[in-house]
Amino acid sequence: MSFRKRNIGLSPGVDRNAVPNAAAQLAAPETTPGIRPSPDDGRPTTSTGTRSLDNLLAGHAGLPMGKILLVEENGTTDFAGALLRYYAAEGVIQEQKVHVVGVPEQWGRSLPGLIGSAESLDEKRSDRRKDDRMKIAWRYERLGEFGAVAGSRGAPNNPGEQDTAAKEAPAFCHAFDLTKRLTHPSITNMYFIPVMSSKESPFLAILKQLQTAITSSAANTIHRIVIPSLLNPTIYPPNASQPEHVLQFFHALKALMSAHNTRVTAMITVPLSLYPRSSGLVRWIELLSDGVIELCPFPHSADAMATSGAATSQEEPPQGMLKTHRLPVLHERGGGSDQNVGQDWAFVLSRRRFEIKPFSLPPAEGDTEAQEASAPGGMPKKSDLEF
Amino acid sequence: MPSQPPLPPLLAPYVSNLPDSSLTLVSSILGATSNWLVLRFLHAALSSPSPNAAFGSDELHNGTKKKVVLVSFMRSYEFWRTEAKRLGLDLARLADKQQFAFIDGLSELFYAPQPTATPSISPSGLGSSPRTTLPMRSPPGAVPGRSPQPAWPTVTGARGNAMPKQAEPGIAKKLHFSGRGLASLDALEKDISSVIEQQKSSMEDGDELLLIIDQPDLLLAATGPSMGIGATEMSEWITALQQHAHATVLTLATDAPLIHNASTSGGLATPIETEHAALVIGLAHRARSVMQLRTLDTGAAKDVSGVLRISRGGGLNASEESLEEREALYFIQRDGGVKVFGRGES
Amino acid sequence: MAPINLSHRRTHNLLLISKLLSLRDTASPLTLVLDSLEQPATPLLKEYIRRAKLSKVHVTLIAFETLKQPDGVDAFVSTRRKSPADIVKEVSAVYQPVAASNPSRRRLILIDSINPLLNSKRVDPGFHLPSFLGSFIAPTSPSAKVDASLVVTYHQDVPELPQQSPYSPTPISELTYLSTSIITLHSFSHVLAQKAARDRSLAPPVFGLEEEQEGVLLGRLDRLVGTGKAEGIVIELEHRRKSGRGVLEWYLLPPASRYSPQHLKEIVTLLDDNVLYNPPMEQDPGAGDEEPTSTFELGLTDRQRREREGVVLPYFDAQHNDGPGEGGRILYDMGEEDDFDEEEDEI
């Protein structure tokens, strides 16, 4: 067991001291912004806009091109929607063509505002973390930094550069603020594809537009397909959930992705409370997707959250569990050997980030002493430290 | 980790030398996919037997020459080509040598991207679906780029005449689904059997043709009873194709919702679940062997990808042939090599 | 009493299965074979064909899932793309020449699986299962006297599709109602495992699809079968006699490798007569064959058990209702082995 992630040595852009431009050259030989080769096998990947999600994707540190990522969510929350907004916003920043299916243009105006590259935010965070260091039990320290493990290469690390630098030196993944609104010149370049109800498959028109847009664009244009809340009855007509419509759409989408397997990625969310995972239809949708991630939010009572699941006072309490059912490329090959497989994941959505970290159980409920010790802001009492 | 032989010894007896008119099922679930096992079937049939012989020396070894026709509904040719290369199989060369033919059931099955690519078949009647007649405005030849398949207009003849490779190198035929019901299945069958016959035309006595159909259950799921296709129709379709081949390998999904909902929820199962279960279980009754892939019961592990259980199917002629049933663990390495080992071994 | 009963049963029921499998006296015009992935019907159908060959019965196989004509089958009727009416026509056509040359020959018609027909989308709603099956047994032309038996296989684990009409009975209930004999097949090793569990008052294990484990279709493994002693298939027979009385019996059909194809004597035995299923009484009851032998003797002999039952527990007497306040006395009878010390011990 090594303490270093195996892929660090393989990563081309690992040299933190290199000038940003050189690093960028290494990271993106195709000079396409937002694309970098996977440290695992060199295939082109792009960022989902969420650093810790990128790092979850089977060692590729990003979503491999030509792959569909399906995000499922239980309950009535909209964490998946936040992930999708990050994904779309990242596409806008990277000047990729973003195609959004089924939602009005307001959706595009509500994308989260840019803070800077994700690395710069992490840098700041870890600065702060240094101050906090003494308070954190050493063994928890690495857990909190999970998001900073695999994806921090090939980008400027200077916190001073921030917003302006993000555009010039190609950062791979950016950080966004959900309370702000994204302003970017290319935000007008988003395409909104409405869902029309029709007697035939309502997906027919969508597919046609996607196909046309992708085949008619220049060869080096990168596309992102964003499908929020697939089959949501407020967006889709009732016949959309017929397997011959939705599954044919997924199959054709898969075909489209594999025909342009260096230029397109897609992220789709599905409400599980309407279409449960135990149904055959959803299972086929999953089988047709390359990556499947399920979000299981905790019941959202603020009080309950304060005491559940936070390993230490320094970490925000998790808001839900995240399960990976299938990961792109890895499972296509047969699955198994990824270091992240089989972990329990928790996620935290805060104003500035969506973070995925290993889930650890809180101290037992009845253990009031331990809870007091981990109460917010509470430094360990001196008596606790003395043996 | 030392590199593994392309064909793990424990697996070899089950994937090679399939008897005449036998049916082998490979079942997979969401977290335990079957592509690696399909590649092992390809390798067992196509690789030259002597370990250091290069390709092209097949003629030297006596015994039966094998050909493979692979129909894939879920994966592109690109995927199979790259993954086969990791095992030392050059599918493009094998296709040139008429030993291998790939039938693409992914790229244009339901939606043909180019209006010029006429549907390869003219289904007899039963109302044409609008899916085939998508008016596409994209100017032809507008995309020269890095896209691996600049889709140039191809007219695929119904007979699969002339060249086996028309549109793109390596792809013998692209399937198109049109219409509904039996007519559409007939058309697909004709397309596939024409490629098989093409392959057979260069076969000598004693040569064997292996037909691998990757996830034909997708066809059922994405059409279903409302389009006049059910489990019986699909399994008849498979029977018809089986008759063209020496041996047939099918991969099918056996995820719990697709198999168990039909029996447990007491008539409340959706048609997609009932039909799928009827197809898969019905085929298992016909199969000689069923190779079942699943994830570890105890959760994920770092050095185990999943569990492989090999069982005798209902169609095994037990009095003439014995097939040892067994269960083993497998592990896919990063380089594509596979370890297959018993529980407790490594 | 029991042994006499058993030998009576043995004589009668073995004769019955022999008659049924050898199609003598048209004991059962319509036999329904219910099989599953855990125990497919193939070995039983092979046995039907073998016996039919021995007694020169003409065998027709209506193939819904068989690809090639198996050995011993005289006529092979493929059903692909044929309507039920076409199938009936063809089945009677293949018998015409035989009937002409040898009118007294008996006939066996096998349907390898009825499920595809029941689940077919193509069959028109007017399809009537009873008359379809009936038309094989009762030929259309009255002049030809055919002595036909129909054996229909039904896969129990293939789900049924929802009914066209919610009020009509399901096909499987129609089939079981129509048939004169119903044979349900079980895997011998599973029957043994279930019996062993029942004997220990455990929940009987389930196999294959019933395990409901994701990714598992078949549960049979050689390991379960063990050293090969538990081979063969268990036949659960439910037969309706002409008198209307029913017979229910469990049999064991040994694997085909155990006897020669020309073997004439009855090979089927009662399941109760099997040594593995019903171990002989001389053996320690309770110690099953597969129980691991241990250095500790956990079982009791009959004598030990009787003695144990005779022991009066110390509080036994207190349990008699002697009124409140009376309980709790310890009754102890001094034995000779007790070393009673007046000064130390007090009762």
TrEMBL record, chain A:
Which keywords does UniProt give here? Cytoplasm, Nucleus, tRNA processing
| Region span, Disordered | 26-54, 359-387
Q: What is its main location?
A: cytoplasm
Localization recorded for this chain is: Cytoplasm; Nucleus
Q: Which GO terms describe its biological process?
A: tRNA wobble uridine modification
GO-annotated cellular components: cytoplasm; elongator holoenzyme complex; transcription elongation factor complex
**Superkingdom per UniProt:** Eukaryota
Q: In which pathway does it act?
A: tRNA modification; 5-methoxycarbonylmethyl-2-thiouridine-tRNA biosynthesis
Compositionally biased, Polar residues: which spans? 44-53
Protein family? Belongs to the ELP4 family.
Recorded protein name is: Elongator complex protein 4
Q: Which organism is it from?
A: Penicillium desertorum
UniProtKB/TrEMBL annotation, chain B:
InterPro entries, per database record: ELP6, P-loop_NTPase
Q: Which residues form a coiled coil?
A: none
Record's GO cellular component, any one? Answer: elongator holoenzyme complex
What does the record list as GO biological process?
Answer: tRNA wobble uridine modification
The signal peptide here is none
Gene3D superfamilies given in the database record: P-loop containing nucleotide triphosphate hydrolases
List compositional bias (Low complexity) regions by residue number: 119-130
Region (Disordered): which ranges?
Answer: 118-151
Pathway per its UniProt entry is: tRNA modification; 5-methoxycarbonylmethyl-2-thiouridine-tRNA biosynthesis
The family this protein is said to belong to = Belongs to the ELP6 family.
What name does this protein carry?
Answer: Elongator complex protein 6
TrEMBL record, chain C:
Q: Where does this protein have coiled-coil stretches?
A: none
Pathway of action: tRNA modification; 5-methoxycarbonylmethyl-2-thiouridine-tRNA biosynthesis
Q: Which GO terms describe its biological process?
A: tRNA wobble uridine modification
Query: Which keywords does this chain's UniProt record carry?
Result: Cytoplasm, Nucleus, tRNA processing
What does the UniProt entry say about where the protein is found? Cytoplasm; Nucleus
Q: Does the keyword Cell cycle apply?
A: no
Comp. bias (Acidic residues): 334-347
Bias type Basic and acidic residues, positions = 300-310
Quote one Gene Ontology molecular function term. tRNA binding
Question: InterPro entries in the record, alphabetically?
Answer: Elp5 (IPR019519), P-loop_NTPase (IPR027417)
Q: Name one GO cellular component term.
A: cytosol
- Show the segment(s) annotated as Disordered: 278-347
As for family, the record states: Belongs to the ELP5 family.
Q: What is this protein called in UniProt?
A: Elongator complex protein 5
> What species is this protein from?
Penicillium desertorum
